[in-house]
Specification:
With 271 residues, the chain is of the alpha+beta class. Helices cover 35% and strands 25% of the residues. It contains 7 helices and 11 strands. The strands form 2 sheets. An 8-stranded antiparallel sheet has the order 4-9-11-10-6-7-5-8, sandwiched between helices. It has a 3-stranded antiparallel sheet with strand order 1-3-2. β2 and β3 form a beta hairpin. It starts with 6 loop residues before the first strand and ends in an 8-residue tail after the last strand. The model has no long low-confidence stretch (mean pLDDT 89).
């Protein structure tokens, strides 16, 4: 090995614009081993061809390709770089990132609509009727309120089940009472992203899009929904009652505000 044809790590740093610490790190993880190490001083030296390897590594960094995958883009010789393969992987990751950003934006827009409803409910004196889109909920039996440790433990178990079932969580958790065919269930629920819902998952309930009557309350007690909506409970129809923490612009965690809502009956039902 002719040392005169090699570059010190400092020179390589200047030629590539990559900090010496980064070059050392690349060596430690095995993507940029030095061409030669002086046995007496321990100094690292690199070949001119490795300038292009450093550039390819930086390309990976810019494209968010994990450096542990860098060896996939190297040929039989350490300086042979498969740029087409590297670009294809970068495009794949970029497409995935774009999809993720779009999903996040859709999620935020849904949250904005819920906040707008909460503000409108607040402005109307804490009572009003609003349309609610289809809601997919993972549920479990529960008869208490939201102001207890058991509620949060139950929510935690629901999220564990979501992970196990490969479901993507939505944005809402709370209490749910469902009346179907004259039978009523008291449940705890967590929203599931409707686009990623599973089939045949135990405890998964789909609430169809409907108009609901909402009100604000300072106490978590879904069991008193019949007192809150006597005109609705006087009618015989399948209904859903939900209680969640209210979505308003400014909230006080020490004095939570709740939203209680009851689905309105279809025209002519239960009259």
């Amino acid at each position: 090995m002719e040392q005169a044809k090699l570059l010190s790590i400092g020179t390589l740093s200047k030629l590539t614009g990559v900090h010496i610490k980064s070059l050392r790190y690349y060596g430690e993880i095995g993507v940029l081993p030095p061409a030669w190490v002086d046995p007496e001083t321990g100094y690292r030296y690199y070949s001119l061809a490795q300038i292009h390897v450093v550039e390819a590594i930086q390309f990976c960094v810019a494209l968010d390709i994990p450096l542990k995958q860098f060896s996939q883009f190297m040929g039989a010789g350490e300086n042979r770089i498969h740029y087409a393969r590297l670009l294809a992987r970068g495009a794949e990751l970029a497409d995935a990132k774009i999809r993720d950003i779009r999903e996040r934006l859709d999620f935020l827009r849904r949250i904005e609509k819920v906040f707008a409803r909460g503000e409108a409910l607040w402005a109307s004196g804490g009572r009003g009727d609003f349309d609610v889109p289809e809601k997919v909920c993972l549920t479990a039996p529960y008869a208490g309120g939201q102001d207890s440790v058991d509620f949060y433990r139950g929510v935690g178990r629901l999220f564990q089940r979501m992970e196990h079932e490969g479901l993507r969580p939505g944005y809402d958790v709370g209490l749910l009472r469902v009346r179907r065919g004259g039978e009523e269930q008291s449940l705890i629920f967590a929203d599931v992203d409707a686009a990623a819902r599973g089939e045949g998952v135990d405890g998964l309930i789909v609430l169809p899009a409907a108009r609901y009557r909402f009100l604000h309350t300072r106490k978590s007690d879904i069991g008193k929904a019949s007192e809150a909506f006597p005109e609705l409970f006087a009618r015989d129809y399948d209904r859903a009652v939900l209680e969640t923490q209210a979505y308003v612009e400014v909230s006080d965690p020490s004095a939570p505000l709740y939203e209680l809502c009851c689905s309105l009956p279809p025209e002519g039902a239960g009259e």
